[in-house]
Structures are given as C-alpha cells and as structure tokens.
Amino acid sequence: MNSKKKLLKNFRLYAITDLKSEDSSITKKVDAALRGGVDIIQLRSKTLLDAPFLRIAQKFVPIVRRHRKLFFINDRVHLMLLTDADGIHLGQDDLSIAYARKILGSKRLIGRSTHSLEQAVRAEREGHDYIGVGPVFETPTKPNYSPVGLKLIEQVSKRVRIPFVAIGGIDATNVARVIDAGACRVAVVRAVFAAKDVRKAAEVLLEQLK
User: Fold this and answer.
1) Are 71 and 43 within 8 A, CB to CB?
2) For residue 187, what is the DSSP state?
3) CA dist list (Å): 74 to 57, 124, 159, 209
4) Are 111 and 130 in contact (CB under 8 A)?
5) Is the dihedral of CA 57, 113, 5, 12 positive or negative?
6) Percent of the chain at pLDDT above 90?
7) What does the angle CA 200 – CA 205 – CA 210 come to, to the nearest 5 degrees?
8) In sequence order, what are the residues at sequence separation of 6 or more whose Cβ sits closer than 8 angstroms to the Cβ of residue 143?
9) 163: which of 3, 18, 96, 130 fits an S-S bond (Cβ 3.0–4.6 Å)?
10) In whole angstroms, how large is the CA radius of gyration of the chain?
C-alpha cells in the first residue's frame, strides 16, 4: 500500500474550505487546522474563478506537504493537473470516474459525494478511493440537498468497505451522534474554518473521533 493510500485509509478528520473570495487568511487557517490534527484539506469554492483558485491551490500544497497530510481539490480536474494535489473530489453531476482516471492516471486519488445507499454502493463498485456521505444534517454549504440523516450513515457503514466520510452540518455538538451511527471519519467546513481558534476547533473534533 503506497503512503497516500495508507493516509487515506487511516484518516479521521477532513476539513473543506468554502471560499467566496481570495481570502489571504486562508493559508494560515489551513496550517492551523493541520496543526490541530486535520488529516485532509480540500480546496472548494463555488464562486472563485480559475486563476485565483489555482493561486490558492499552489499555496496550499507546500503547507500540506510539510504536515505530511493529503490535499484534495473539489471538482476542477483541469486545475488539479496544474498542481501537486493528491486527489480530486467529485459530485454526482461531475465527471465519471472512467473519464477522471483517463485524465489523472492511477496515482491520484478520487472521491465522490453520495447522498443515498445506492449511490454509495455504486461509487465503491466503480472504483472510487473513498466517498463522502451526506449531508447528514442541514448545512448552508449544500442548500439544494435535504439532510440524509444518521440512518444512511448506519447503512453505509454496514455495506461499504472503502473509506467513507460523513459530511454536512457536523460540529462538536453532534459529532458523537455521527460516530454512534457508525462513522469513524467526518468532514467539516464551518466547524473548523469559521472557528475563532481553528487549531483548537480541530483538536476538539479529533479528540471526540478518537
């Protein structure tokens, strides 16, 4: 098993940005999150144009490398090719894994968002390296999706063997319920990056996950 696959197998805490602008403070926040125990950083922005998105991605790489963690880019396969990111995270309406593999090759990791048991099982069968499952709770980052609830987490934990990460409205007040439902990995956005003390917020979540 290569080092990236090993890191992916063993990760616990996944932090995702939700950038609305080219925020100069985000690199410090990413460093603080990694110091707090975050295992994977995903650069996500639904509003940034490609040029500023790429500038930020290129700043993230050396920070993540220094901490020996993983860096994923959301959706933008063409920009991933211009960086040293470890993988791509795709939504249900993004490129198929067949096309993504053709573009990226076998060494890059590919994740997929799933919102039902059927989608989760299919993503595993298709050969994705990991999946996101959610949104578990209501979240402003996924306004067009209804919460899938804890029942789906329980179902996926029993059916899917590749790493899966619960996502959507998870924070320190409800993460214990997600763990009890069968998840051992969670992804967060605001619970880390909107916190006054990013490092402490990550530490608190990681302690609960352990």
Assistant:
1) yes
2) E
3) 11, 19, 25, 24
4) yes
5) positive
6) 90
7) 120
8) none
9) 130
10) 16
At 141 the pLDDT is 73
Contact assessment for residue 131 and residue 164, using Cβ atoms and an 8 Å cutoff: yes
Look up residue 101 and give its two tokens: 């593999």
**Position 1 pLDDT exceeds 70:** no
- From 79, 59, 67, select the one nearest 13 (Cα to Cα): 67
**For residue 1, what are the CA distances in angstroms to 4, 76, 94?**
8, 27, 28
On average, the pLDDT of the chain sits at 95
Measured CA distances, 48 to 43, 111, 146 (Å)? 11, 21, 25
pTM exceeds cut of 0.85: yes
Whether residue 142 has pLDDT greater than 90: no
Please state, in angstroms and rounded to a whole number, the distance separating the CA atoms of residues 35 and 33.
5
How large is the average pLDDT for residues 22-26? 91
Q: What pLDDT does residue 103 have?
A: 93
Domains of the chain: 3-209 (3.20.20.70)
pLDDT for residue 24 is more than 80: yes
Q: Which of 43, 38, 14 is nearest to 26 (CA)?
A: 43
- Residue 143 has a pLDDT of 73
Round to whole Å and give the CA distance between 31 and 24.
Answer: 13
Q: How many residues does the chain have?
A: 210
Q: What one-character DSSP code corresponds to residue 38?
A: -
Across 40-59, average pLDDT: 97
As given in the structure block, the two tokens for residue 161 are 């063997």
Distance CA 53, CA 79 (A): 8
- Collapsing DSSP to helix, strand or coil, 90 comes out as strand
